[in-house]
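Entry 14. Two folds queued back to back today. First construct below, sequence then structure tokens.
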Amino acid sequence: MKVAILSRNENLYSTRRLKEAGEERGHEIDIVDTLHCYMDITSSRPAVRYYGEELPKYDAVIPRIGASITFYGTSVVRQFEMMGTFCVNESVAISRSRDKLRSLQLLSRKGVGLPRTGFANKPDNIKDLIKNVGGAPVVIKLLEGTQGIGVVLAETTKTAESIIEAFMGLKANILVQEFIKEAGGADIRCFVVGDRVVAAMKRQGAEGEFRSNLHRGGSATLVRLSKEERATAVNAAKVMGLNVCGVDILQSSNGPVVMEVNSSPGLEGIETATKKNVAGMIYEFIEKNAAPNKNRTRGRG
């Protein structure tokens, strides 16, 4: 098979591993810089051009779209969908996952476990907003934040009010969520491929840090999931419409709750912690499912 990896940096661990794993399985792999793609939009023969030439026909595309280029990146993925190319994650699903508010609303509608969350626009709603999610301490998140950036723990009501007022003064979109104290600064990253969790790790935040992101000094260890945790992760991926994703779960007293669904999950942490060939499992999924015009959205989203 001929497969394109949409990535801005061929030296990233995840990009290198996907290329290596594909070539080990006998596939022809191209790494294509998303921002250097440009689109020929025509009703008769849509195409993607790259450095002055039309890209060849691919059997599948693996999008690795960074958060900072979501709009353009999903436009490129959508163009491949219009051409009938199988995309591992489709443009609509990537867009859903990148909008934290939209993703929480979709998960809520389908009954997936979530931390209680508030969203508001006017400062006069602040007191009730904090009260409605269970009171301080609360977690305040920028809608556009990634890798733990723009996430603040407010331990008192007064602190929460000040932080929310500051964010609102900057006209930033924020979420206010209940703080799951019993999680103890840890979460579980479930790596979903297709309709199953292929690997999982527990991420523990550094001492004094409530965020468990590995980019922020957290550590990762192998974890055995409960049946409920496994079902929650698969359900969340299905609601988002993602074939490959990382689902971040907190262990609460009310059962597993989903914090985030990541459409471009990193491979380094999960492969190191679990010793599993996750990149190879992604190609197993492609080999079983890739076919022309098999995308569900067909470029309509």
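Second construct, same run, same settings:
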Amino acid sequence: MDFQLLFSGVIFGLSLASIYFLTSIGLSLCFGLMRIISLDQLLYYSFGAYITYTVSSFIGNFWLGIACGVVVGGILAFLVERLIYRRIYEREITFSMITSFGVLLAGVGLIKSIWGLLPRPVQPPILEQLDIFGTEVPIYRLLVIAIACIVYIGIWAFLNRTIIGKAIRAGIENMEHVEGLGINAARLFTITFVIAGALSALGGGLYAPLIMVDPQMGLETLAFVFMVVIIGGLGSIKGTLVSSIIVGQVVSIGSLIYAPLAIMAPFAIMLLILLIRPTGLFGSVLAK
């Protein structure tokens, strides 16, 4: 394997890791604060991609499509949280996982009824490539990586520098203490869920030009996103970032070495890490 091919694989892996991070961060936030497994984040991911496709096709502005997808993802998350999750917060975690998977399947059916079954292409906003170390690298992939880095910094700043963010962090560690301070836990849950849905939609919209937008895209990504959250540790933002990079690189480099490794290797790594650290790389019993 020559250097140019390896370097291209690393860039591809980082861009893939960026999508995994944006999509799985919602799962981590929701589990950390509300102790639910929100598989329906993949629904907002799919809607983000389809809204981006629709707006960019009819208006011709990809970035406006991204913005609309993020808004729609946040609105859908708000409705699902208000209408469904508020009724099941006190139930067991497996119940929330089954419920969220049902929401995801229902959403896939809704997507099929609106956009049909055929995959849809999305034109990349930037077609130029940049020469780095003698390797042609698509500028759009570098932009996706940069956006994911900005989002991570933004989430860190939000959780550590704002009152609402600090309340969310405190709630992740001990919700009873937060409620004892007179903070409205229900409102905190809603804000967290909307942020998670919007970020998942952002991931879907950014990924749309790199794949064919398909009704099953959420289900196809589900296993990898779930692996990212498990490897990093449920509820850990830092763990989600690190595990996204690990899974993205394993999928990318593995496909260059031997194609089936792109699917097999992440599962093997997840099992190995769980044998050593059952709570994931950065997880703990309290999911700090």
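Quick look at the second one. Residues 48 and 69 are 4 Å apart (CA to CA). The two ends are 40 Å apart (CA to CA).
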